[in-house]
Design goal:
The chain is an alpha+beta fold. It is built from 11 helices and 10 strands. The longest helix is centred in the first third of the chain and has 29 residues.
Length: 334
């Protein structure tokens, strides 16, 4: 059997890549500098990735069956209208593909099932571009994010487009955070059992550190908004690299634009996600940095009171109380 006839799409893609590499070799001069070769190689890599992505979409679309009609959410039928072309901006450049488009005359709804199969929404940028825009926008202004995006990728967006994407991602993240807060508020606490299996050693206590601080940040319109920030990590994740200097291997950040109540609810959700409320011999330690208001300090208390339980043995004869119960009294909303 002829392998070339068995996989025509794959062979076509290989031929295009080979042709692109040969053209690149002829373009780059032997005496070119390393910077010129690097730039040309980067353009070649982008072109090859663009070809690969385009061919992959074409192959998937060719294997997709085109139905005459599909059920509509209104109860009617969406009928096939045409093969509609679409171009989306990706991290490797613009990519075009053709997919069937359906339309319901009863309610006026349109649908492209191939887009749904790809996970591509109505925006003309891919999830990879959205992810990078969100990363840049979280660190710098929308205008600077536009410049960085254009330097890092072939995608060109206006500052307004970057702002729209970033705000949409922020709204989704806020909704996820609110769901986590609501679930955390309903999470029951468990006490550590005082029973120990014969022959099994008691697990080492684990200390959790919560560092908190707050500030009033200026907003548009000459207004101010309270912002609370927190850092959660376990003591065993801190490594001392020199005297009085250490690094954290793993940490969680908690930031809320709001007051103590909002911050405490979000921090409690972070603690639950970290695993503090699980029935283990853990203890929770909280610190408050200078500048934190007295109300915030009252929710964290002092470090000595909670850290003592991680090192002192239980000599009272009572059942040891899990440290998350302490965190519950200090941090849990309500």
């Amino acid at each position: 059997m002829n392998q070339e006839n068995t996989h025509p799409v794959e062979m076509s893609l290989v031929s295009k890549i080979v042709a692109a590499v040969q053209a690149w070799q002829q373009q780059v001069q032997a005496e070119a500098s390393l910077a010129d070769c690097e730039s040309a190689a980067q353009q070649l890599a982008q072109h090859v990735a663009q070809l690969t992505l385009s061919e992959q979409l074409a192959q998937r679309q060719a294997a997709t069956l085109t139905e005459k009609a599909l059920p509509c959410t209104c109860g009617g039928r969406q009928h096939f209208q045409r093969q509609q072309a679409r171009t989306v901006r990706t991290l490797v450049g613009p990519v075009s593909y053709v997919r069937p488009y359906y339309y319901c005359r009863a309610c006026g709804a349109g649908r492209a099932p191939f887009d749904e199969a790809l996970g591509q929404d109505a925006r003309d940028v891919t999830a990879g571009v959205v992810r990078l825009v969100a990363e840049f926008s979280a660190q710098v202004s929308f205008g600077t994010a536009t410049t960085l995006l254009e330097k890092a990728t072939p995608v060109v967006l206006s500052a307004r487009q970057v702002e729209t994407i970033a705000e949409a991602v922020g709204a989704q993240a806020a909704a996820v955070a609110q769901t986590a807060v609501a679930q955390a508020a309903e999470t029951p606490l468990q006490k550590a059992s005082h029973l120990r299996l014969v022959g099994r050693s008691e697990p080492e206590p684990r200390t959790w550190i919560i560092e908190m601080d707050g500030v009033h940040a200026p907003l548009r319109g000459a207004t101010w908004q309270e912002v609370k920030c927190g850092l959660v990590y376990s003591h065993d994740q801190r490594i001392e690299i020199s005297k009085d200097r250490g690094v954290l291997l793993k940490k969680l950040r908690c930031a809320v634009r709001g007051g103590v109540a909002e911050f405490r609810a979000q921090l409690w959700a972070q603690l639950i996600a970290t695993g503090v409320p699980k029935p283990t011999n853990s203890s929770c330690s909280a610190t408050a940095r200078p500048g934190l208001t007295k109300r915030s300090q009252s929710c964290s208390r002092t470090r000595g009171a909670s850290s003592t339980s991680s090192t002192s043995p239980n000599t009272s004869g009572k059942s040891p109380m899990h440290a998350s119960a302490k965190a519950h009294r200090l941090l849990k909303p309500g």
